[in-house]
Amino acid sequence: MMESIGTDAKPMEVLLVEDSPGDVRLTREAFKDAKVLINLHVASDGTEAMAFLKREGGHTNAPRPDLILLDLNLPKKDGREVLEEIKQSPTLKSIPVVILTTSASDADILRSYLLHANCYITKPVDLKGFLNVVKSIDNFWLSVVKLPHEAR
């Protein structure tokens, strides 16, 4: 599923890998005031995320994401496995991966960085905090940082 969100003319392709419909809805809401146009794609489990990234199955025309927002606790294939697979792939490893999860475990944080996550954010449990975190992702990752783009 894809939805364009934001206000700028050049769209950024963002893959949100999240199994919570509520968190998906809140992420969409937070990106509505984005500084750039965002094509938000959602994968609800790790297996679907990898099919999207590899352009397999129903995802043969999927765009290459400019940024991946990855939850760790996912069904089928967890986020740790997805992160490891992305960062071991010569064609995918340059895509920045932001871990966005409820886990504040030191072991999860360390493992994510050892697997080459680009940053680790613990989701706030309150609505306002969650919206602020997603807006900060927009402010930094989509507005300040220069992201690599696949040759088009």
Number of helices: 5
Strand element count: 6
Any idea what the shape is? globular
Distance between the amino and carboxyl termini:
22 Å
Main sheet makeup:
6 strands, mixed
Structural class: alpha/beta
* Average pLDDT number: 87
Fold-level CATH name = Rossmann fold
Share of helical residues: 25-40%
| Order of strands in the sheet with most strands | 1-3-2-4-5-6
CATH uppermost class: Alpha Beta
What's the number of structural domains?
Answer: 1
Q: β content, as a range?
A: 15-25%
Task: Describe the protein's architecture and organization.
Helix content is 36%, strand content 19%. With 152 residues, the chain is α/β, with parallel strands linked by helices. It has a single domain, classed as Rossmann fold (3-Layer(aba) Sandwich), CATH 3.40.50. Strands 1-3-2-4-5-6 form a 6-stranded mixed β-sheet, sandwiched between helices. Helix 4 (106-114) links the parallel strand 5 and strand 6 (119-122). The longest helix is centred in the C-terminal third of the chain and has 16 residues, at 127-142.
